[in-house]
Fold:
Amino acid sequence: MTDVRTVGAATVSAATVGAETVGAETVRAETVGEFLGSPVVGSVAVGSAPWSRHIVLVGMMASGKTTVGRFLAAQLDRQLLDLDSVLVEGMGMSISEAFDLHGEAWFRSQESAALVEVLRRPEPTIVSPGGGVVLAARNREVLKRSARNVWLRATPETIIRRVGSGSGRPLLAGNTEDRVRRIDAERRGLYAEVATVVVDVDDLTTPQIAECIRAAFHDLC
Structure:
């Protein structure tokens, strides 16, 4: 069961079990005792808990995660980590090549490992993962425990307009419009599951989206 409230132009979702709301931010009431087998030490105070150091932007491809992340990182003087770029460097090949050579399952395993590595970093960062990061239940649990997650929610129509022919996106091979709608239907509930804040981005500029995020997380203002 979820209690959904609106703060400015952002929708804030606070799970009613095991969480409390401080200002516009959801804070888990229990100390996170373990993170992927490693002990985690720290309180749950806003801005000091291990899981709250990072802001992760989730959402469909072309929803603006990297663009918004770059803008927000500059505002907050934080590093932006684009998870796909981290993966490409670590794999030594493009994402399209990884899909072609090894298949999606292998790529997703690499994505999970990269996500854990990024979120273990001690310095607060802005993280922009690929749209499919929420597909694995393990990843969703890591995100919920280890970050403040902002869903940049866009309509399928917006995504279809932005991706164009879908060139360079392995999952859009074929009928781009049909594939976008199918992927959106598959993932929408998963984004909602991990989201601390939801921002509807269709009619907003990048600065407006960043302002919504900062307004929702009052300690960032």
Q: What stands out?
A: Helices lie at 65-76, 83-91, 95-102, 104-119, 137-146, 156-163, 176-194, 206-216. The chain is about 40% helix and 20% strand. The first strand starts at residue 2 and ends at 7. Residues 176-194 form the longest helix (19 residues).
